[in-house]
Amino acid sequence: MRRDEIADLAAFVVVAEERSFTKAAARLGMAQSALSQIVRRTEERLGVRLLSRTTRSVAPTEAGERLMATLAPMLHDLDAAVASLGELRARPSGTIRITTVEHAAKTIIVPTMRRLLPDNPNITVELTVDYGLSDVVADRFDAGVRLGGEMAKDMIAVRIGPDIPMAIIGAPDYFRTHAAPNSPGQLIDHRAINLRLPTSGTLNRWRLMRGGRETRVRVDGPLVFNTIDLILDAALDGHGLAYLPLDQVQRHLDDGRLVRVLDKFTPDLPGYHLYYPHRRHASSAFTLLVETLRFRG
């Protein structure tokens, strides 16, 4: 394959990722008309349509998706490999994009940045909070953070935090009209404030112990959110029970604004792990981040 054909394929990948000729042209630093000609030339050479175009959107066709799935990881690894050469003569640098859940960002990643970034001013860490199980390759993340056991099997996983104590809590006002449950079965009589999981579209099920075995329980209720901060606020307002990390509610338990129930039935969750593809080219900045985050408890 000639070099100009490789360059054309790389340009197609950028358009497919951005789903916009305008954004792709800006990213590549070229005229939109020239980019459009490159894509048309590539389609003619391959004999298949790679992009569906309307006046408002651009999206890969089935053939385009298949080509992109193969090319995009290769091109991103090539970019990382070239960028890493500069690190032989400079301090660790570059942007590291991580998809994470809110709790991990607050309790692990952001505190770790206080140790990492002051001595490494050329590193930028970009966090995207998302409860969906993002495809770190397709979505162009360098790594993701999820609970142990939630990563795809083809990923490298590094533990970055201890197991997570959980708590079922409610406000004193709520318990004035609802008797505190003494067993998981009594949750059927209670109202819950729930977390919506975007990937499945379902509500987060509470992990509880029944008869010595862990089970996942759904508790219905009047409010559903996609962030634990709003769930906590609703619990403090007395709207129902909530299932949250203990460290996020401890101060409210200490000052009496919340009451914990079913603590002996609420197991810890497996700790957070950083995960990334086996084939990812590890820059010195990324390696430094991994080692700084690595859990050594």
From TrEMBL:
UniProt keyword Transcription regulation present: yes
Recorded superkingdom: Bacteria
Matches recorded under PROSITE patterns: HTH_LYSR
Molecular function terms from GO: DNA-binding transcription factor activity; sequence-specific DNA binding
Keywords tagged on the record: DNA-binding, Transcription, Transcription regulation
Domain HTH lysR-type, residue spans: 4-61
GO BP: DNA-templated transcription
Family the UniProt entry places it in: Belongs to the LysR transcriptional regulatory family.
Record protein name field: LysR family transcriptional regulator
Organism expressing this protein natively: Nitratireductor pacificus pht-3B
